[in-house]
Amino acid sequence: MWNNIVQGFSEIIQAFYLATVWMKIPSYGLAIILFTIAVKIVLFPLTRLQMNSMRAMQELQPKIKEIQERYKNKPEKAQQAVMQLYKEKGVNPMSGCLPLLIQMPIIFALFSSLRLFFDPKLHPPYVDLTKAGFLWIENLGQPDPIILPLLTVVVTFAQQFFTSMTASGKIDPTQRTMLIIMPLFIGWIARTLPAGLTLYWVVFSLFSAVETLVIRRMSGVAKGAGSKA
């Protein structure tokens, strides 16, 4: 089954490549960018749900702390009271994980697909290896050890920063530590991944950062309109 999924991703990338051929700008790099944008559009409802859930949970933090203080010697009672609060406010704490849960299989499948897709000997017969390069990258199936990992660090930091600010309007010390460590960790891993996969991550994170700003602005406009009413 997994091989069929990987093959399916290869055929999807090829379909986007054929779209670039139709646009007279044949490029597998551009095909991966278009694929990333398509994934981003499909996941947009879940992303918005995630942000709304994070904001709602942040707003409930004072009440949650009050419950934890009230039942500090009865953790099970505290947990039940917190879950009841979530239920009353219509908040699903698991909804914040949905985009990530869907993203992980895509990343794993894309990783497996791209390693073979641009392999000089094992690539599918329909792949045009003369278009395997993109900008400074010689082969999207091989790692880019410097530029893409650096871009990964920058855009991952931007995405996490804007998401944190959207959720709470401020960054606490714990978030500040993760805000630095996670981008560096992901950038370090990106040094060994196929450049096509890192390109996917960079474009996805970049659009996520922009998307977060747009949603925050839309939410702010809606809240402002509501307060006037």
Automatic annotation (TrEMBL):
Domain Membrane insertase YidC/Oxa/ALB C-terminal: 28-217
Alphabetically ordered keywords of this record: Cell membrane, Chaperone, Membrane, Protein transport, Transmembrane, Transmembrane helix, Transport
Pfam families cross-referenced by the UniProt entry: 60KD_IMP
Gene Ontology CC entries for this record: plasma membrane
GO molecular function: membrane insertase activity
Intracellular or extracellular location(s): Cell membrane; Membrane
Protein name: Membrane protein OxaA
